[in-house]
Thymidine kinase
Amino acid sequence: MAFPPRFHHFHFPPKFKKIEFETFMAHIIFLYNPIHILKSLQQFIILSHFLFLFFFSIMAFSSSARCPIDPRNGSKNSFCPAGEIHVIVGPMFAGKTTALLRRVNLESNDGRNVVMIKSSKDTRYAVDAVVTHDGTKFPCWSLPDLSSFKQRFGEDAYEKVDVIGIDEAQFFGDLYEFCCNAADLDGKTVIVAGLDGDYLRKSFGSVLDIIPLADTVTKLTARCELCNRRAFFTFRKTNETETELIGGADMYMPVCRQHYVNGQSVNESAKMVLESHKVSSDLILESALVAP
């Protein structure tokens, strides 16, 4: 192998073999060969492209898993932030609306856009505001159903909303569908407050239906109006039998289990007495009419 002129006067160490130096130089020339460098660069580009496609496919798969097809229009959401559903239940006078407003105010103080909805059936204190029993107010949308909220509120305004509060949720028949869509598809935080049972201790509306959807469920209690123990139930003071009978302390009171059972027994006894008196009165009237 012929060395370049600059190596002619190079003096090898005594133990340095010429063949070792030639091998070393051959490796240097091979490594810095432009053709070899281009091939290495090409391989690097191919590998980078492969890795990019690999990670992009993973991201696309995870995105499609997190963003299901919207059943309302058949399209797939391009961005699906995580939504939440929080449910607050309990008897009347348990502080459900107070807890709802406290949570909504905390979200608002954190810089999130909030909106409140209540049923248009509830006109006890105000039409355009959620009002607690102690007089605390919060402006709201009063609606007959939840499905019309987005249209009335406006699509653009709805997109900017972060938190939706729903008071008196037991009056909304479409509560389940609205909460599911708002949290799962639109990424909203939905806070629901309502009665979990009616005056007969039966499921009231769709409130219990959304518990399987909920991130958290808070069961509040009141104080029994008769003994001051924890009250889990709502007792109706009147004889009306329809489920949806809106009223306040004039019609309802929170009671413990014992006083609920006793009260229902008293109500049943009173009804029986009234019915017997009614039957007796009818018989007396009938006898008087047929008498000569």
Observations:
- The mean pLDDT is 78.
- The helical segments are 18-31, 34-66, 96-109, 149-153, 155-159, 175-185, 257-290.
